Amino acid sequence: MIKYDKKPNILVIGDLMIDHYLWGKCDRISPEAPVQVIDIKKETTVLGGAGNVINNLLSLGSDVSVISVVGDDDTAKELKSMLDKEGAKSFLIEQKGRKTSKKSRIMASHSQVVRYDHESKNSISFDSEKRIFEKFQEIINRYDIILFSDYGKGVITKELSKKIIDYAKKYEKRVIVDPKGEDYSKYEGAYFLTPNKKEAQEASKIEIENDDTLKEALKKLKEQADLYYSIITLSDQGIALLKDDEVIIRPTVAREVFDVTGAGDTVLAALGFALSLNNSIEDALEFANLAAGVVVGKLGSATVSLDEIEEYKSSLNKSSIELHIKTVQDIEKISERLKKQNKKIVFTNGCFDILHKGHVSYLDVAKSFGDVLILGLNSDDSVKRLKGENRPINTQDDRAYIVSALECVDYVVIFDEDTPYELISKVQPDVLVKGADYEGKEVVGSDIALETKLVEFVDGKSTTKTIEKIKKVIK
């Protein structure tokens, strides 16, 4: 994992837009024309374009600022409000008569029916270029690295790009670019670019078919744009780097791909984040690969956090069962992340010494109350204090491994106190679950959880009765 010894401050320059979604369902065809009639149920908006890079940087834990050009319209006001809400500092230049980019998608049963765009794609005016460069000169010393997110909507013109890169070099600030178009001389002097294979082929005019042509394309791009490093992202094959005339390929680490939307934005953000912390280029590439591996496992343009990357990296080296066992520190971070994702967290606790049908039934019902079930497991010392010197029968590691293997259990965390109150205060669950024998009694942590549920036990099933049965058989 990369070293993370400070909070970086990163500047993004590029094309901002709003991704607008109208969600609904279709039950009929229009009598006016052979088209679907969509009954809209929900409307959502997210930052798009360079905004997706910004969201990824914020999710990773960076301070972020953005310079861009918008129109003098309501969409620009909405965009500024969204940036403020996310916590990004924005320097937006208003250009009269320009349309702020907004892409609207009509979705029926999670399938896109149609998209319509409201935007200007022509290059920004000379005055807007001048104002961007002046602002850049004013604030450059605040930032560790500069990222260009070029979506080809006219903000990053060839003249502006060269002026910013040349000025950044004077202050020893690196500029990393997610490029657009075929003329990479536009980004001359950048630290490196992040084209994908298709983009690299179009810009270099070299068909990448094997290791030799890959190296040839990397060299050509390096020469074209006078880059410090040359990089090509290779989708499921990873990321290729030309360093000291040697091609280094960091292979992909994606387990399962659902959607590649926004993966390029995540790679740019992850590389910028890692390098702003003075990590090596090789470590930055590994980090970006892990980040991309997380994002392509999600649906739609997505962001990634350090916790998710750490967890994902661990999952590549551990069994899936062990991955569910977390420390108290881990579970606090995971709970915070789950809340940001609007997941409903369910918490329960217990000894779960000798697993039986009653336990499994109880946990299965508990999971039904929300999206994620976190199980607090009493440590061996805690069980001894509660149950006596002869308990537990199974060690805490064995018990944790067994219960974490259950499909209904998402995370297991061992706690050493007599009650789980401290753990519950860190998790802040939406639902707290206990056995029905707590009816009329105070449930520890009920003052923290939003609601408390009591679950009936399966008659005749308990660890104590199982132990008694074993003793009779031995006798």
UniProtKB/TrEMBL annotation:
<dbReference type="InterPro" id="IPR023030">
    <property type="entry name" value="Bifunc_HldE"/>
</dbReference>
<comment type="subunit">
    <text>Homodimer.</text>
</comment>
<feature type="region of interest" description="Cytidylyltransferase">
    <location>
        <begin position="347"/>
        <end position="475"/>
    </location>
</feature>
<dbReference type="InterPro" id="IPR011914">
    <property type="entry name" value="RfaE_dom_II"/>
</dbReference>
<protein>
    <recommendedName>
        <fullName>Bifunctional protein HldE</fullName>
        <ecNumber>2.7.1.167</ecNumber>
        <ecNumber>2.7.7.70</ecNumber>
    </recommendedName>
</protein>
<dbReference type="Pfam" id="PF01467">
    <property type="entry name" value="CTP_transf_like"/>
</dbReference>
<comment type="function">
    <text>Catalyzes the ADP transfer from ATP to D-glycero-beta-D-manno-heptose 1-phosphate, yielding ADP-D-glycero-beta-D-manno-heptose.</text>
</comment>
<keyword id="KW-0548">Nucleotidyltransferase</keyword>
<comment type="similarity">
    <text>In the N-terminal section; belongs to the carbohydrate kinase PfkB family.</text>
</comment>
<dbReference type="Pfam" id="PF00294">
    <property type="entry name" value="PfkB"/>
</dbReference>
<dbReference type="InterPro" id="IPR011913">
    <property type="entry name" value="RfaE_dom_I"/>
</dbReference>
<dbReference type="GO" id="GO:0016773">
    <property type="term" value="F:phosphotransferase activity, alcohol group as acceptor"/>
</dbReference>
<dbReference type="GO" id="GO:0005829">
    <property type="term" value="C:cytosol"/>
</dbReference>
<dbReference type="InterPro" id="IPR011611">
    <property type="entry name" value="PfkB_dom"/>
</dbReference>
<keyword id="KW-0511">Multifunctional enzyme</keyword>
<keyword id="KW-0067">ATP-binding</keyword>
<dbReference type="GO" id="GO:0033786">
    <property type="term" value="F:heptose-1-phosphate adenylyltransferase activity"/>
</dbReference>
<dbReference type="GO" id="GO:0005524">
    <property type="term" value="F:ATP binding"/>
</dbReference>
<dbReference type="InterPro" id="IPR014729">
    <property type="entry name" value="Rossmann-like_a/b/a_fold"/>
</dbReference>
<dbReference type="GO" id="GO:0097171">
    <property type="term" value="P:ADP-L-glycero-beta-D-manno-heptose biosynthetic process"/>
</dbReference>
<keyword id="KW-0418">Kinase</keyword>
<feature type="active site">
    <location>
        <position position="265"/>
    </location>
</feature>
<feature type="domain" description="Cytidyltransferase-like">
    <location>
        <begin position="347"/>
        <end position="438"/>
    </location>
</feature>
<dbReference type="InterPro" id="IPR029056">
    <property type="entry name" value="Ribokinase-like"/>
</dbReference>
<keyword id="KW-0808">Transferase</keyword>
<feature type="binding site">
    <location>
        <begin position="196"/>
        <end position="199"/>
    </location>
    <ligand>
        <name>ATP</name>
    </ligand>
</feature>
<comment type="pathway">
    <text>Nucleotide-sugar biosynthesis; ADP-L-glycero-beta-D-manno-heptose biosynthesis; ADP-L-glycero-beta-D-manno-heptose from D-glycero-beta-D-manno-heptose 7-phosphate: step 1/4.</text>
</comment>
<keyword id="KW-0119">Carbohydrate metabolism</keyword>
<feature type="domain" description="Carbohydrate kinase PfkB">
    <location>
        <begin position="9"/>
        <end position="303"/>
    </location>
</feature>
<comment type="pathway">
    <text>Nucleotide-sugar biosynthesis; ADP-L-glycero-beta-D-manno-heptose biosynthesis; ADP-L-glycero-beta-D-manno-heptose from D-glycero-beta-D-manno-heptose 7-phosphate: step 3/4.</text>
</comment>
<dbReference type="InterPro" id="IPR004821">
    <property type="entry name" value="Cyt_trans-like"/>
</dbReference>
<comment type="similarity">
    <text>In the C-terminal section; belongs to the cytidylyltransferase family.</text>
</comment>
<dbReference type="GO" id="GO:0033785">
    <property type="term" value="F:heptose 7-phosphate kinase activity"/>
</dbReference>
<feature type="region of interest" description="Ribokinase">
    <location>
        <begin position="1"/>
        <end position="319"/>
    </location>
</feature>
<keyword id="KW-0547">Nucleotide-binding</keyword>
